[in-house]
Amino acid sequence: MTKKIYEHEVDEPVDIFMLIKGADVRKAKNNKPYIAFTFQDKSGQIDGKFWDAKEDEIERFQAGTVVKVTGKREVYQNNPQLRITKLRPIQAGEPYTPDMFMERAPLRAEEMVDEINETLFEITNAPINRIVRHILNKYHKDFFEFPAAKRHHHAFPGGLGFHTISMLRLAKTIVRDYPGIDPSLLYGGVILHDIGKTIELTGSMATEYTLKGNLIGHIVLMDEEITKACETLKINEDNESVILLKHVVLAHHGKLEFGSPVLAHVMEAEIIHHLDMLDASINMIDTALQRTEEGTFSERIFGLGNRTFYKPKGQTKPQED
Amino acid sequence: MTKKIYEHEVDEPVDIFMLIKGADVRKAKNNKPYIAFTFQDKSGQIDGKFWDAKEDEIERFQAGTVVKVTGKREVYQNNPQLRITKLRPIQAGEPYTPDMFMERAPLRAEEMVDEINETLFEITNAPINRIVRHILNKYHKDFFEFPAAKRHHHAFPGGLGFHTISMLRLAKTIVRDYPGIDPSLLYGGVILHDIGKTIELTGSMATEYTLKGNLIGHIVLMDEEITKACETLKINEDNESVILLKHVVLAHHGKLEFGSPVLAHVMEAEIIHHLDMLDASINMIDTALQRTEEGTFSERIFGLGNRTFYKPKGQTKPQED
Amino acid sequence: MTKKIYEHEVDEPVDIFMLIKGADVRKAKNNKPYIAFTFQDKSGQIDGKFWDAKEDEIERFQAGTVVKVTGKREVYQNNPQLRITKLRPIQAGEPYTPDMFMERAPLRAEEMVDEINETLFEITNAPINRIVRHILNKYHKDFFEFPAAKRHHHAFPGGLGFHTISMLRLAKTIVRDYPGIDPSLLYGGVILHDIGKTIELTGSMATEYTLKGNLIGHIVLMDEEITKACETLKINEDNESVILLKHVVLAHHGKLEFGSPVLAHVMEAEIIHHLDMLDASINMIDTALQRTEEGTFSERIFGLGNRTFYKPKGQTKPQED
Amino acid sequence: MTKKIYEHEVDEPVDIFMLIKGADVRKAKNNKPYIAFTFQDKSGQIDGKFWDAKEDEIERFQAGTVVKVTGKREVYQNNPQLRITKLRPIQAGEPYTPDMFMERAPLRAEEMVDEINETLFEITNAPINRIVRHILNKYHKDFFEFPAAKRHHHAFPGGLGFHTISMLRLAKTIVRDYPGIDPSLLYGGVILHDIGKTIELTGSMATEYTLKGNLIGHIVLMDEEITKACETLKINEDNESVILLKHVVLAHHGKLEFGSPVLAHVMEAEIIHHLDMLDASINMIDTALQRTEEGTFSERIFGLGNRTFYKPKGQTKPQED
Amino acid sequence: MTKKIYEHEVDEPVDIFMLIKGADVRKAKNNKPYIAFTFQDKSGQIDGKFWDAKEDEIERFQAGTVVKVTGKREVYQNNPQLRITKLRPIQAGEPYTPDMFMERAPLRAEEMVDEINETLFEITNAPINRIVRHILNKYHKDFFEFPAAKRHHHAFPGGLGFHTISMLRLAKTIVRDYPGIDPSLLYGGVILHDIGKTIELTGSMATEYTLKGNLIGHIVLMDEEITKACETLKINEDNESVILLKHVVLAHHGKLEFGSPVLAHVMEAEIIHHLDMLDASINMIDTALQRTEEGTFSERIFGLGNRTFYKPKGQTKPQED
Amino acid sequence: MTKKIYEHEVDEPVDIFMLIKGADVRKAKNNKPYIAFTFQDKSGQIDGKFWDAKEDEIERFQAGTVVKVTGKREVYQNNPQLRITKLRPIQAGEPYTPDMFMERAPLRAEEMVDEINETLFEITNAPINRIVRHILNKYHKDFFEFPAAKRHHHAFPGGLGFHTISMLRLAKTIVRDYPGIDPSLLYGGVILHDIGKTIELTGSMATEYTLKGNLIGHIVLMDEEITKACETLKINEDNESVILLKHVVLAHHGKLEFGSPVLAHVMEAEIIHHLDMLDASINMIDTALQRTEEGTFSERIFGLGNRTFYKPKGQTKPQED
């Protein structure tokens, strides 16, 4: 009902409820602490600085709480910014909860679960099917809660599951249009390829890398999970299907310099790599264009070589719920 | 009815009709001329040397003619090779024509025409629609006759059209699954992206680069075609749709070092690049795996960084008509 | 008569007339607007910040107006900077016009026109001669008004023409010293190689990239111009001279990663690339050294891999007018 | 007693016993089969072709058998080559066994075992010690039998163990000279870093890559072994020492483009990488120089960027037993 | 006796004597001068800003003087920082001299001299021995006083000598463990490899590059020194040992892009390169880890590709005298 | 008078006198020796094989002798080749000397000497003038006899001097057209930049690299020469002109990866680099095009990234003497 942050024009006054996604306490030149906030509602995220923060304010305005913000939507050095003139916690009778402000995957978790489950029936290769089910069960909750990345693409709760679903849809087109693809290996690989992120990252709020994430990385972490699944399920690790499944996970970054320890040497590995790039690219550009005026170029997109993208005139803004 | 060349085992005697696709006359160490043949039938291509070639044989056995070859299918330094023991032209009553041996796109030209025509109705942007129709008309015949490349991928007659159709099918999945894509720009860009190859290359037999192909290249040649189409159709070249259409063609190689003079700065340009890579990769791997024994690695694929691809055991060979 | 900005020592008080070349209104930490100025006179450009700017000052002090500046020449983080203590518009009786402060090509437009015209007589190849004349006529005014780049080299009004003239002079030495060069192709290519910049850029003040500049680029834009010239002049585009002329323009950046869609495959293309590099490098170094004290290193030059250049002791500053 | 192959001068007649290390049957231009032999004795390996091979000769002269070769040591295109004039199997009473001709690690397996065992006492970190012992036990035999690489460095039986021992000796110098190094992590990492090669490669004769070697690679294979060891030994995989041990193995190739999925972010990982490079480089150069005349340059060394190495004059050839 | 700067906790008040290593006068936004200090004591270096500096303070607090600092140890954007609340010069009766605060090589100069001298006896090659002694004599004082680099590694007085000694110790292990190494060339090369830094850099305080350092570089400068030594000592420059000695110095950076004009083509050159990398890497990581809390990652290390390094938990801080 | 080799058509019989430039004895598959000849006359060089060479023929037909060759001009795998049917030495009364067949610089040595000498008068900087004269005197003979490279560009006797002269001519245009260039430094640098090749290479016949060439390289060798010249001439090596002169020599390859130990940081160094590239490129292309038919592409040019160059139609072959 209330207007969301990105439904305000640039330089329009703002007086809305938002969720604090990040709250970094720093020191200003004058040595007084200030809070560098990241606010969000369903229209996106925006940064804003809160100067001369007092002890109790620092205490009160932490990540995960909902606040009422008064100020102005501005642009600073090409990035959106919120000038804060007033900030207060929600009060009794203001019926807002954090999840009302969270940008989320366009699909609900249950829908994603259903779509994954349907796909499992198309994985007819027994060892692959058993391994995928085992790992899905083990990481079930996180799989539909985690973002697909710390930033870059699908960086919202549920992003990991949603990115996987999107790739699966493309994968099904591939299986339909090209003979000779092994659906078990392709779908199994797509489902597993990024689940290691649930070990690599800390979660969906204030997302950071874990020690394992930094020192081992999600690609090898998933290889370890397949290894352990074989031990538990008594599947022979020399089974060719197991080797192929590990391979498509290990090779999905496409190049050694992007962190894959092996290059793709199996057709399905090559396909998964391209589908990953395609889906991630569309998501990154789409996210950037949502904050871009028609007829202008977006901010630079780090994950796409710092390119900017042009938003053509006369293309209407995608609706939000 | 007759067994095709790749339906013979390695070291099995061969006694079949084939089409001469290439016939290069060279000189042996002993100074006598020999012919380096490339034969083909619908199961693929194979090289073979014909020693001590006489003048009349050189005359007779030229590219484009059908011959009866007796010999043995062999493997030389990891590549298939045909040892020729006898070679003769077809004789009266042997009812073979060259096109009976030509590997072709899995779709007939008419089917491709239909599929393209249907797509044209979905290009609702007027200038893009008019430009695409104009260029399709101009290069209609070649578009469905040319290969998509001299070698590498879809290097068979009709390959250019078939590669385009395959990308269009993927593109339609993208439009269905992702909001915010402009179908006119995406489909128009896919259709035009490689038509410049009809100017860059000499044709589907003994394919070489033309002077324009070498000195200008198919990417800029297509940009020129759009420029000329605008002149002819009286479309203002400052129209944003025209600029975007040129851009998606110019940017489709994805990187400057692959010959695109600009990087993709429009969502549809980025998508076309990925679809191109995806379809070309699948075709290259598929072609290589068709000549590979199960449980072994293929020959090196030049267009994929010289990687070899593994053909899993128990995966049955794709049928050929 | 007055001392110019770079004729002041570092830390010397300044009280002179200058032209405002750029005036960017930004917001300070304290939320008050300030103006980030770029001033210039014939000795060069210098930045300076004007704090706590009021509405009428922002209105009054825009790019293109002449002002009287009081302050001090300083150095901030190795870059020259002007500390502003007072700023006022010119008053009645102060006879200054913007062009009196503009750094310009060392040649007047008429001189450049003459030198180009003389060269046209040495382009004896008919199609090249006609195409070059046609395009020169079409872009005549801009050709002698535009800078050769947004920044980097020859970034002053008339820079495009002057850069072209400088290359032509070197080209004539080449023709004299090396047999086997085609003067028509070499001179024609030099004249056309950068004219696309008149479409790529917006002009000589507050220079920015146009949409065509960003999405097509000056290299392909010039190829389009040659294509259109052929249509207009009824020159067959398959004429080898036309193909060669397009090629030398397309290849002049020397490497694919610098935006040329083809590598040089013609002698004259290779030469034009080297002459371009040579003239641009000298101009960039020369510009940087003019602001450098003897016996010290210049600021970093972005267009030369961020290298700094040493200004030897005892080398006297080049005179200005 | 007999003179070894590399104790013959170039162009000196040869009449000695050697081991056939490789025997590749190929077809000559004239379609007759020949055998491309690799012979070896303790002075090194040498190639030689055996023309017009008959069926029984192909049968008889296989890899792993000892033969008497008569011929001449030659040089062909800068590489050593053996011209074969006569070849026969050993006869009754000729007391030669294959291992008498095999180039081997300069240390006997027992010596290597002892040196490793001593080092285990210096690994005082309990989880690391247990994991290392477990894996050493599991791969004990292969560890002292395998080469360290298919070709490149330490490509002889026992090379893997010997390369490891050499690195351990350097590692001990490091621990002695630099405070702050963790000996458990450093020694444990050195011992495990290449054991994955026993899974990656097929063995010490006619060494090839296994499917796991090609599709997973020895780096990740070793990470899997640590994972499984933890399962078996009930060591918590979240134990920091376990994570660090995995990390130093994963990072030891030093760069992503060399196949490490993570860069070194732990001091001991960085050290192991440098020791690996140092020991491998010395071994490669040493091997090449043993076949190089003083005052000349060696053959190109593939593993060192195809560089050649100069053998100074007056440096005496290293003795061989 | 007093607690050193890095023996204070973060946010602990500080009231200690320190040496001013650098004192850069800059201008604040409000146009008042401030001093950007680098302080140091034996526990390391720390930056701190001194606002509103008066003329006499600028005069008094220069690099090389000892001061009493009152303030707080803080962390600013991941880097250690000292907040200064009070600053005064030492007073009569405060017995502090600059060298009491200088981080130094862990070895005294005399120890280093002894260790170098011992090594000279192992350089038995006459020309190498004479050249090394000659150059050591010429640069004796600077060799034990200079840092090994302006920043990056061993950037403290005596660092050059200490880095050389550390490499020599590793070199002796190499000579012991690997046959076929020439100790004269290896030790001579190690000793000379970086002495050119005494010409390239200005000294150990406020270290900068000299003009020769910038325009010739320490690698070629050392080659010149060997050239001049030969002239003086009447050693024939065509002597192979001289050429080899020059080569190992010229090649020690290992790659052309790191400034070596030739790649290593001699075994000892390759070894020196690796020892240099190994010793420098350990020093850089060690320095960074000394300021890092256990269980966290260090600051980024520029000389190691901007990597951060993890300091494992439970590893005790290395003692300082 | 006689027709030269490249004045024959392809496949035209040949019966002319030529000089043997190279004569490599190799062994054929049948184990009989053959001679791989490189012949030359003033129209260029051509390879040809002489089968079944007898001992006395190997003795007689060595590099540097003139012979009468009967055979045919052919093309083998895109390279020109001479089929030899008869070969005999010159006989009494046949008045041919080797230098009558040698491709030479288009200028006689005396002309080059004159042109260099004139330039010396324009080097008014005393230290530079003295150093350049000293080094020119020392290497006078070789400077006008050596090629500029082993292969690649100006690979003929006198090529070094001629390449230098060509660059000097361009350099004079630069001095004329651009103010602010130091002629002494520019001309001095041009003259010295490649003289190190007289030490790096063995001479103009059967050119190879010397040990110094391989291990030090011509760039550093020239720096050593300047160092020694200063010692001899008692010029202070700290003189800025000396440092600059060394710098322009050291930096002339333009990039570290091309073997310059420093990047250009002085205007004249940057110019010399570009002139070197320009002159070398023209020479390489020109040489290749002389053997190329009009309307076709040349062989690949190694020194220009393996590019082929197109020879336009209707461009007449450059005349020779």
UniProtKB/TrEMBL annotation, chains A, B, C, D, E, F:
GO terms for molecular function: exonuclease activity; nucleic acid binding. Keywords: Exonuclease, Hydrolase, Nuclease. It comes from the Bacteria. It comes from Jeotgalibaca dankookensis. GO terms for biological process: rRNA 3'-end processing. The gene is yhaM. This is 3'-5' exoribonuclease YhaM. Its EC number is 3.1.-.-. Pfam families: HD, tRNA_anti-codon.
